[in-house]
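Final report, closing paragraph on structural work. Over the funding period we assembled a curated collection of sequence-structure pairs, and we close with a single example.
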Amino acid sequence: MNLSDKIAQYRIEQLQAEVDFVVGDPNRLAWRIYRNPVFRFLTYHLQNFYWTLTRLLGLAHWHDGTRPAPALTSRPPLKNAAAQKRPRVLIDATQTFTYGGHTGIQRVVRKITAAAATNGEGLPVIIRDGRFFPYYQAANFEEEIVVGAGDHLLLVDSVWYKPETYLPVISEVSQKGCRIVLGIHDLIPLQYPWVVQDLAAAEAFRTWLERAVPCADAILTVSRSVALEIRDLLANLRCKPDLRIGWQHLGADFAADSSPSREMTDFCEEGPFFLTVGMIEPRKGHPVALSAFEKLWKRGVEAHYLMIGGYGWSGPAFRQRILCHPEYRRRLFWLDQASDADLGYAYRHAVSLVYPSFAEGFGLPIVEAARCGLPVIASDISVFREIGGAAITYFDLLDADSLAARIADALAGKGAKPSFPIVSWQEATDGFMRLIRNDAYQFSPATKSAARGRSAIGMI
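Its predicted structure, as stored:
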């Protein structure tokens, strides 16, 4: 079975579990109420009334996914910001500032903006009505930023959700001589549209690429694997003839001046445990990891399993499987509100990181674990091979038996501490800035003839 078929079969099995959970027993009271036509009629009209009323009152953000943008006075302070180097690299952080969030992209945005502003390599910005304002409150930052010739605009945030905001801005600043650098973390919404939050999000991503790539002067990403995928994809998209593509691995470090919670320290004292880090969502493979531990527990193997990460989407059946598991809070634990201090403490005390994801643009937990000297057991996919090489342990993709065998090996002391180059967030940010400032991107787009027939994502 090839990789695509294996992933498709896994996803079908997980979707079937979700359907079984939602439908459940036809005799279940809740299901019978839901199927009642009177109940469905009332809920339909009450929902429409709620939507209409909230729109009239200016409260549509309660249900349409938007919310009023926070005031600029709520920008985070930065005491040690350096004077900006020229030409300026403006780093967009509008979506992170407006909506918050702590998924991988927001984490990257916060780390890169802080590092770039600290040494003056980049100026983090917020875009409001086509105008630019500094993301941080700092004494040496202008209140409003005027974009000019020679500047670079790096769009590394979740910009594809808001094309109506960014496309006019791109057009305007390009006419002033500003170079546009698109940050693309991965192509997962194109490769696996059925694992993102909804198909509308996948379509928005596709539309963004179709409309934004022709305006871009360069594209930045976080791994060589994704850079090569983008290079092949561009054979099917309009783009500037001199467009360049570059990549830089992400960093890993934790603040040393914060303490973990009592819950975390107590848990780490209970016995040997394995750790998975990441939001619970379809592509992360948590069900495979839990199945592997269930096999080991059935054989009498003593090991604890800790998952750190918020609940994402498309997984109510798996969430129920966790919360109703006979081992929950005995040998199975889930922390959805862990701090950086908790995460760093877990990395330093676990037996191994278990990373069962089948689709990633990078794989931040791998380098975070390695930074803390923690062995890694990861899915055998190309980007993980790129990051960890022979220094980490791999298991067959989406295979619980293969993963269980690797976990048993780690308990027997066969897991070595990983040894491969790891950069700090400051070093990673400096690497991104060098690519932009020195035009040191590694690739040009593949020609149509060279890429035809081998692109894994010829969807656009």
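The two ends are 26 Å apart (CA to CA). The chain has 18 helices and 13 strands. We thank the funder for supporting this effort.
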